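Re: the pair you flagged

First of the two:
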Amino acid sequence: MGILGTAYYFIPMGLNDRVALAYDKALQSVPGATALIDVRYEESWYWWLIGTARNVTVSGEAIREVTK
């Protein structure tokens, strides 16, 4: 494995995309919600023979913005 392959495991490439998608999915799971508070983030890594599989979970309390 070269330096680039090693760096892939230590530098979280694509992390922002995974977190944004997980946040959006959590927000969409509650109809009418506009934001999450008390947000919790969890990332799981599974090692396979040919690489890794990563799972990001974002959870929190869904809130709705009140407009006047």
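Second of the two:
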Amino acid sequence: MRRIDTNWLGVAEGYVTMFDHWSEATQMWDGIGERQVRTPIVFEGRFASIPVLHLSPTLIDAHSDTYLRLNIRAEDVSEDGFTLTVDVWDDTRIARLGVNWQALGPLDDPDEKWDV
């Protein structure tokens, strides 16, 4: 368990459409094998230390004839942001994918108050 010892808890959140490969078929829809999409996320403010992240898929538009093989993760997490990474493999076909994210951690500047 991680304890955040501060009265200045910051919460950043957002939604990302990782890809929309339906209108113009690309690698996640037509590809075979290992495929990856990466999206950099920059927080509006800076955290005092690396925040705790929560990721949640909110839109998955996948082909019904194949298994859904999907790995969603945060990489290169820092006080300023992270890289949202999605992997699929084998014959998985995904047309659209959306992800909600939330970061929680102590604020870098105690004079900056975020509306939580």
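The longest helix spans residues 27-30.

-B.
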